[in-house]
TrEMBL record:
Transmembrane stretches, start-end: 29-49, 80-98, 110-130, 136-153, 165-187, 207-232, 239-260, 272-293, 300-321, 327-348, 369-387, 407-427, 448-474
Compartments, as annotated in UniProt: Cell membrane; Membrane
UniProt-recorded name of the protein: Na+/H+ antiporter subunit D
Keyword terms of this UniProt record: Cell membrane, Membrane, Transmembrane, Transmembrane helix
Domain NADH:quinone oxidoreductase/Mrp antiporter transmembrane: residue ranges: 130-421
A Pfam cross-reference name: Proton_antipo_M
GO BP: ATP synthesis coupled electron transport
Protein species of origin: Micromonospora craniellae
Membrane-related topology note: Multi-pass membrane protein
Single GO term (MF): NADH dehydrogenase (ubiquinone) activity
Length: 500
């Protein structure tokens, strides 16, 4: 089974090389891309089954033993993230193929899109599997390079301007991360996460706290937590719909994953938990208030994206098994639902030529299927029972109540208020875009391509299925949270003879 661990990284990279060679042949290029991501999804499921039954699978690249060489680790958390990310990237790829056929024919931008998209996927999977800080940094750089190409596809002035903002902010985050990596190595002499878990315990408290805050700052920018999230609502909405969808669903969650991994493995029980809870509350509140004020659907979804990142940070800040269970479950739920909502926004734009709520109306009568896709996803995001959004929020709020105290109870109240405001935002979009009298200024265009609709339906079904499989999914997230709190399974899997 360990031989499968590198495949979620190698398959997309191999696919990127092949699709680059096949740039003049769109159909074989699409077949290669879909085959690579479908195979990656199968491998990810096998790794999750192995991690759940037998513990983490570890590969020492080049047979260099840890902590010297590069290590890839597929524990329950990493494997679960691989499964969800692979499923989402596959659906978004199918959507983009359908959209490309409808809007641009056989010429562009698919020739550039496929290899870049596969490199982006490889960066995401490598981040989840990385067993050392430098490899994690390399993953972020792969993401940054690929995402700049994707966010500026077609090279319009607006996309280049917003893409430049995106790059500047993320380069700043990368610089902070790289400086942090250097300081960590200077203080401990290693970058291997399992080795660091042992070395950090011997550092002075002030040094440990400084390194923790620097890593949180770098990952906080990537995850778009308040007040480091101002760049996101301006950057994401201008990109093509499938690009925005995969960015919103996945890229911010890579930052959240890095926070979960480093906070639990390197800084267990540290005082930053209170700081994380304060940040989580502000992220939820400021994000959803921003969504309330928006009249464009993509910007509105961008603000809800920021807002719901706060729920995940809340679970991490609690520093309990129940809090981590809720946070991991909510990450899985939110990757699926937020991606789906942006794809629905793309379908609305294709159907009407606009995502401005002031110009939309009557879509429930014109395209009932589109109304169903939005309604189910929006109610799931708002946390209406029995959807997975409700189960995730309930788990987090119960974890906060169990901890008790002023700050957790405040976060419980803020989380409840945010959920109600999300429901208000979803109802407002429904009333303006789908329910009210059709706006005469917007004329329906050609029918939606079957492939884009099919990919969106598949993601909606995946979101609903999280409710159906909530029991087994909570078993996996509980196992992952217990392992994260214990730390021993991860450290022993990487360093079976103990830290040197």
């Amino acid at each position: 089974m360990t031989a499968l661990v590198p495949l979620p990284v190698l398959l997309p990279l191999l696919g990127a090389a092949l699709t680059l060679l096949l740039a003049k042949w769109p159909v074989p290029q699409r077949v290669v891309s879909v085959s690579c991501l479908a195979t990656t999804l199968v491998v990810a499921v096998l790794l999750l089954v192995h991690a759940y039954r037998y513990g983490p699978a570890v590969v020492q690249i080049g047979a260099w033993p840890a902590p010297v060489g590069i290590v890839l680790v597929a524990d329950q958390l990493a494997a679960l993230m691989l499964v969800v990310s692979s499923a989402v990237t596959l659906c978004v790829l199918l959507y983009s193929i359908g959209q490309g056929q409808a809007e641009t024919g056989e010429s562009a931008p698919l020739a550039i899109f496929h290899p870049t998209y596969l490199v982006l996927t490889a960066g995401v999977t490598n981040a989840f599997l990385a067993g050392d800080l430098f490899n994690l940094f390399v993953s972020f750089e792969m993401l940054l390079a690929a995402s700049f190409v994707l966010i500026t596809l077609n090279g319009t002035r607006l996309r280049i301007r917003t893409g430049s903002t995106y790059v500047v902010v993320n380069v700043l985050a990368s610089m902070i991360f790289l400086i942090s990596v250097g300081l960590v190595y200077a203080a401990t002499g290693t970058l291997n996460l399992a080795h660091l878990a042992a070395r950090f315990d011997g550092l002075p408290e002030g040094v440990r706290l400084s390194l923790q805050l620097m890593l949180l700052l770098a990952f906080g920018i990537k995850a778009a937590v308040f007040p480091l999230s101002a760049w996101l609502p301006d950057s994401y909405p201008t990109a093509p719909a499938p690009v925005t969808a995969v960015f919103a669903g996945l890229l911010t969650k890579v930052g959240v994953y890095a926070i979960i991994r480093t906070q639990t493995l390197l800084f267990p029980g540290e005082q930053a938990g209170k700081l994380l809870m304060v940040v989580a509350g502000l992220t939820m509140l400021v994000g959803i208030l921003g969504a309330v004020a928006q009249s464009d659907l993509k910007r509105l979804f961008s603000f809800t994206l920021v807002s719901h990142i706060g729920y995940m940070i809340f679970g991490v800040g609690l520093s309990t098994v129940a809090g981590l269970v809720g946070a991991i479950f909510y990450v899985v739920h939110h990757i699926t639902i937020q991606t789906t909502l942006f794809l629905v926004a793309g379908l609305i734009e294709q159907r009407t030529g606009s995502t401005d709520l002031r110009r939309l109306g009557g879509l429930a009568r014109v395209t009932p299927l589109l109304g169903v896709l939005f309604f189910v996803s929006a109610m799931n995001l708002a946390g209406i029972p029995p959807f997975s959004g409700f189960l995730g929020k309930l788990g987090l709020l119960q974890a906060g109540v169990a901890v008790g105290g002023v700050l957790p109870w405040t976060l419980v109240a803020v989380g409840t208020l945010t959920s109600l405001l999300t429901l208000y935002v979803a109802s407002r979009v429904w009333n303006l875009a789908f329910w009210r009298t059709p706006c005469q200024t917007v004329e329906p265009t050609a029918p939606l391509p079957a492939l884009t609709v099919g990919a969106t339906v598949a993601l909606v079904a995946l979101g609903v299925s999280l409710t159906v499989v909530a029991g087994p999914l909570f078993d996996v997230t509980t196992g992952a949270a217990v392992d994260l709190r214990d730390r021993t399974p991860y450290i022993h899997a990487v360093l079976p003879d103990g830290p040197p």
